[in-house]
Amino acid sequence: MSSLEISALCKRYGPAVALDGVSLTAGQGELVSLLGPSGCGKTTALRCIAGFIDPDDGDIRANGVSILATPSSKRDFGVVFQNYALFPHLNVAENVGYGLLFRKGSKAERERRVREVLEQVQLVGLEHRLPRELSGGQQQRVALARALVIQPRLLLLDEPLANLDARLRDDVRWLIRDVQQASRTTAFYVTHDQAEAMAISDKIAVMKNGKVAQFASPREIYQRPAERYVASFTGEANFLAAEVERALGGGLFRVRAGGATLDVRGAGPFAGSAVLLARPESLAIVTDGTGQLEGRVVKSVFLGAVQHCEVVLRDGASVRLGTPPDRPLPADGTVSVRLDVDRTWLMPDAVP
Amino acid sequence: MTRRLPRLALGLPAVLLLLVFLILPYAEMITMSFRTSQPGTMHGAGFTADHYRNVMSGGLYLGALARSLLLALFITLACLVVSYPIAWHLSRASGRKALLLYACVASPLMIGVLIRNFGWMIIVNVDGPLNRVLLSLGLIDRPLRLLFTQGLVALALVHVFTPFMVLPINNALRNINPAVIEASRSLGASRFATFWKVILPLSFPGIQPGLILVFVLATAAYVTPALLGGQMVTMMPTLVVQTLVGTFDWPLGATLAVVMATAALIAVVVFSLATQRLMERVRA
């Protein structure tokens, strides 16, 4: 159990830059997700932390002490691999107990500890099975148990749910969160799935081309993204081109967007043009005259609990939103759209 | 039925080949081993088990058999020790480097058996390049007499059998998921512990066939021991050839050959049975 601090981490493979000055911190007991598309450097960062590769530049400190000179076998970090990487020739109990062979403790203590962890991940009764005799979800549990049994200072998870089907994914995700919370283990979690990252993390680092685009809480990442890339990677997003007229103070800005003048929140300063983020849930089709925007429904899809609509606004921008499925849309498609300005966010339109 | 026929036809050449070149010759040899000897002809009229009694009670034959099997065992183990690091490097290499390494590994097989052994004779000669280099470096005072020794035979056989050990082990090592090695390290295992507990067992699907191949080849090796070993020590294959060609006693020669093949087969079967559990665990 420890805190981890990564500063200005760089890694190049020939001309390709995998990590370009990544800085992150994880406080004790926190779960930090590295979120991004494939090739963004998230796995490289995790492998640097684990000690499988050496960064070209930068530092990694655990509890304030640099660990770069420490081989992975001495770091005391539990790693859960994407393909589980179980020892195929060892049964479940031997796989889980493997890390204890290199630590103090009698055989009886080791067996007790293995049983404890197997109980934690609900695998009791499968001790003598070989990995190939287990389902994907069970293998993932063994991988988790094997990493947890050594009571690691840090838990590193590399896309642990990528190979599971959707239903299992939920179960194992909650299991990971539960055991991580119960043991108060600091954890890094690599994923490309924003919903997974949202659900499980204390903090999320959204990565882009080897850099951290934003590092903040899930709520902050979703509601107050630093840039368009972060907003679109963390969920359904509408972007409206906005002309900033003036700052009103207190984080409020008066902008022209979607053919209306709006007072919205943002983290300026802005000069001239900006981008207004309006998540689908901040938009609603209204008939009571409170809508600030006018538009025409060009597409609608009935999805059961909700009806998805695409609306082209007067200035030509198109937005997606949801409406209650039982409310009929006007025959000519002309609608009034209300924008909940408290749930919008103004962002710079280009990031240096 | 018409659909089945082509499949049967596909298997036919292999069956024929086995029948003509394996089963029939062995049947013929086993039959020959029970015939009576008669000087001047290939064999006499009747059948007898005397040759087996003779071979099993004779210290000459059993001694040669034991020596052959022991030498083969030693060569096999030496081959494993030499080959494993080579296989490891080969399994980590890719592209041109891998191609070059493959060529080096296969090189002993690219030269005919006679040329290769004459090469050894030239190199280890009392007046040969090896002795000259060692003398000029001051490592030895007098030239080493290596020719016609068991040591040289073993060295030459290890050299030529190395590819049969390296290639299957290389294959097995390539099949190990690299993340498994990382997992072992991250759980606290040293490099040595990782090798011993993970890499070695997981490469056993390559080690087992390598050991069997080299052992069988080494047991039956004739040309190299005959050329480099001289007449000092009698090996089983040498005895077989002497009996067949020298004294022209085909029934006895056949008996010796059957005994030798059976001994090698028993060794292989015992080894396979002993390692069966491990193999079942590590098979991919």
UniProtKB/TrEMBL annotation, chain A:
GO molecular function annotations of the record: ATP binding; ATP hydrolysis activity; transmembrane transporter activity
A GO CC term attached to the entry: ATP-binding cassette (ABC) transporter complex
Biological processes per GO annotation: quaternary ammonium group transport
Span of domain ABC transporter: 4-234
Superkingdom, natural source: Bacteria
TM regions (residue ranges): none
InterPro entries xref list: AAA+_ATPase, ABC_SmlMolc_Importer, ABC_transporter-like_ATP-bd, ABC_transporter-like_CS, Mo/tungstate-bd_C_term_dom, P-loop_NTPase, Transp-assoc_OB_typ2
Keywords: ATP-binding, Nucleotide-binding, Transport
Family assignment from sequence similarity: Belongs to the ABC transporter superfamily.
Protein name per UniProt: ABC transporter ATP-binding protein
Source organism (scientific name): Reyranella soli
TrEMBL record, chain B:
Transmembrane segments: 59-87, 99-124, 144-167, 210-230, 250-274
Keywords tagged on the record: Cell membrane, Membrane, Transmembrane, Transmembrane helix, Transport
Entry's localization field: Cell membrane
Protein's name in the database: ABC transporter permease
Top-rank taxon: Bacteria
Keyword Acyltransferase among UniProt keywords: no
CDD domains recorded: TM_PBP2 (cd06261)
Domain ABC transmembrane type-1: 65-271
GO BP annotations listed: transmembrane transport
Protein's UniProt keywords contain Magnesium: no
Family, as annotated: Belongs to the binding-protein-dependent transport system permease family. CysTW subfamily.
Taxonomy of the source species: Bacteria, Pseudomonadati, Pseudomonadota, Alphaproteobacteria, Hyphomicrobiales
GO CC terms of this entry: plasma membrane
PROSITE patterns linked to this entry: ABC_TM1
SUPFAM superfamilies: MetI-like (SSF161098)
Membrane topology of this protein: Multi-pass membrane protein
Gene3D superfamilies named among the record's database cross-references: MetI-like
